[in-house]
Queue: 2 jobs
Job 1
Amino acid sequence: MNKDDDDVLFFTFVKKLVNLNKSIRWAGIANQLGIIIKETYREGLRPLLTSEDNLEYAANTIARHKERMKYEPKIGKLEYTLAKYEKVNRIMIPLNNDNNYLLFSLDVQEVDYDNIIKENIIPFIEGKEVFE
Amino acid sequence: MHLAKNALNLDSSIIWVGITNRYAILLNVEQKEGTTPFLTEEENEEYASHSITRHKSRGKFESKIGKLVYAFGSYNKIRRATVPINEEYYLLLTFNKEATNADQIITKKVISLTEKHKQKFVV
């Protein structure tokens, strides 16, 4: 697969992901260095953070995740992390053996994030050959 | 410190509770009777230290997205959460895998409890 193919696949992936659930506000894919490869917003959304803020957020999130990996032999592999803020929920899911990361945000009113992740997001990721 | 013990008894899915200050010193730890610790004492201290470091790095966008209410991680074997008590102290919780409603447990039970105990933790 060449870079252009990847580009299209990643773009399609984040676009489809944002439409999986009405409470998803923003979705992005980051690489191992925490650099956002592709991102998209829910249509009509007034974002809380700028694209530059999202870049910094992604870099910090991936750096924090790497500290957690030390205990995986004892507590198991990380499925997802969530940070609940007063105005938004932010989630990170490692993809294809920690080569990429899915970052997305949910409306703060959404309390059923565990169900959304397990019922909507993870099956969607598992069905995508780009992350196999 | 009754907070850790009380927090441990809030829900059957909570199996470990720690209280740490902002210097990541574990002040109190409670493990649910009959459960086996996943981490050693030293590992818990290191975990506390990493949790607090991570928490500090999450504050950057507070003016835009609000204060952090809690941070949560779901692993294959357990689930963990960091809940700020105030600006100086934090409650660390470990849940078993059956805790599928962690948001409800944290926002309805744990935060109500930390609110009650808040004044005992001097900033």
Job 2
Amino acid sequence: MNVLPIFILLPLGAGFIMLLSHRLGKRLPDFIANAAVFFLVLMAFSLYFFRTPGTVMIYKTGCLPVNIGVNLVLDGLSHLLLLTVNLVAFLITFYSVQYMEKYTKAEKYFSLLLLMIAGMNGVVLTGDLVSLFIFMELAAVSGCALVAFGTESEELEAAFKYLVMGSVASIFILFAFIMIYGLTGTTNMADVSQNLPGNAGHARILITLLLLMGFGTKSAIIPFHAWLPDAHPAAPAPISAMLSGVLIKALGIYALVRIFFNVLGMTPQLSNIFTTLGVISILAGVIMALGQWDFKRLLAYHSISQIGYVMLGLGLATPLGILGGLFHLFNHAIFKPLLFLAAGSVEYSTGTRQLKELGGLRRKMPVTANMSLAASLAISGIPPFNGFWSKLFIIIACIQAGKLWLAFAAVIGSILTLSSFMKIQKYVFFKELPARLHNVGESPWMMLSSMSVLALLCFVIGLFFPVVVSFLINPAVISVAGGISYGRLVLGGY
Amino acid sequence: MVEYLLCVVLLMIGVYCVAVKKNLIKIIIGLVIMEYAVNLFIVVVGYRMGGMDPIADPLTSAVYVDPLAQAFALAMIAVGLATTVTMAAIAMRLYDRYGTFDITKIRKLKG
């Protein structure tokens, strides 16, 4: 019995049942959401023991042969993203239970969150271009509705901007997919990678440009980043964590890597484009972050910068570079949600996120302060936290590839990251306490425990990084570095 | 060839509308035009010269247009509907807040 469809059907079904059953009990939506996502984490993790490395797990719809039907495909890369998405989603759902008590209509919030999880699981599992598009729109539209969840002026404005830019990007992506369909007569990724005609020069260039624009906007690399610094801070904190932590990776980076490496095939020119965009994102993102005085907005600019590291590592297209990029993607999905949750915890207790109005919270909120310190050290690449190792891999890979200026830019970006997180620590948690904040208290226990788990993961992954790399990251590297042999692997799987 | 170019022209009209217009509703209409351009492109890609409607008939061996492309177009219309409805809902709430659809007056965010 094949379990892959459960990753999509369970959150969809739970989201639907929640809207029907919330009248039966006030706590029922929280319980259903947490139980469903917890089950998904357990399944995603236990699948590591059922899938032999180097093979793919395929779910065929109906009785169609594997090169015609719409399949769900689980290979190393999908598995890494699947585990990341569900793990972060579970911790965020757990955090949301008490955070969302400030808002009304919690059942609608959880329902939309589960829809978003279903969309992201669909994106990372599907083996078909058009269903990738549909799942992408599912995740993007429900994400946008969640950004607007508070219905304040800024939130609505940010959500509108996000939705307009996201939809333009989606339309470009769809246009490119249909061009691929016109060239090959199929939308099955494995079949496309085997059948793309070699002489499709001009069409190929157009497809590449459209896909770079589209997925570049989804993953917010620099020339296409304008929506992210508005949309991510405007959302409720758990949703900011979800958007920054996993949505831009599942919809942007994963789809980019899957299509350019495994379906269209990587070329040296494309590799140069990736590394250049990556370096521009690293530097411009962190420089823009330095000037911000809004806690969450500062973190949002750092997402751009850290996605730049992932792009840089992947763009090198050497095994070590891909390893660094994917490891950084995984690490970023651990520490960036933690930072957003800490910002949410500060906002929950004090009611503001302007750095100049905060200060001295280390004595009042010791747990939040320590968690945010751990995440700040991880994101700035201080050993032994996890961010250090992945940045080190990327920098070594740059030097190995003979691109010293890329390595130099990555180091500069890391130093600037450290300085901007010192600013956060100083203005929020050290300094003296303003009179207005004398009777704030620590956040509730569910928020704290989910932050603690993430901080513990930052530390444990940093200490035991060889285990994590060989167990989680290496299978993904093999399936990315395999290039278009992905198609043979999938088609030969049955 | 010219029909593909016309699809691209229609797409560009939509992009122009989204990029230049200052009214929320006109931006939404621009996006709808882009969606229509892509749907038209899907159907044109699936068209076969002199093709019949794709209902299998074992007695004739005529040329059929591609049914898969038409199914895609239907799915994309549904996806486009979801996007448009969400956008229209947000535009209505924005109108409640600001009393205008003019984006030059809706400016609380900087970036």
